[in-house]
Design brief:
single chain, mainly alpha, about 40% helix
Length: about 140
């Protein structure tokens, strides 16, 4: 399958709440459970959590984060995603744990598992955009 990037570099083609993936195999409960571990107080409902992808141009598109600053910036600049931006990475680029922080949370703090981390593969924006920039 072709890589489908969101505006910030998430991989929609791997995302477990991306509508086309949900329609093929609904695994939203799995990812919602991981998100609850990562972001304390965040209680996503797997029955209603879905996203058409921030590159979707339909007026009625459902976006996971409709107020995303990165999406707004990319649209204003008229580029496809952050990988095309001269200022990448910038202050509004999505923050994500470093590999060291991830290992700390899995192996030391036991906040989530390596299986949880595998489910988060779609959301590693910096890794995805760094790879895109290298291969461009």
């Amino acid at each position: 399958m072709e890589k489908i990037f969101s505006k910030c570099g998430m991989r929609c083609d791997l995302c477990l709440i991306y509508r086309p993936n949900v329609e093929k195999e609904d695994r939203r409960t799995e990812i919602c459970n991981v998100w609850k571990k990562i972001w304390k107080g965040f209680e996503p409902d797997p029955n209603t959590t879905i996203c058409d992808g921030c590159c979707c141009e339909k007026e009625e598109a459902v976006l996971f984060s409709p107020l995303c600053e990165t999406r707004k910036c990319v649209i204003e600049k008229g580029i496809i995603h952050c990988g095309y931006c001269e200022q990448y990475p910038c202050s509004i680029f999505p923050a994500e744990p470093t590999q060291e922080e991830t290992i700390q949370k899995i192996e030391v703090e036991k906040q989530w598992t390596w299986e949880d981390e595998k489910l988060m593969e779609a959301y590693t924006c910096k890794k995805n955009m760094d790879e895109f920039k290298r291969n461009r």
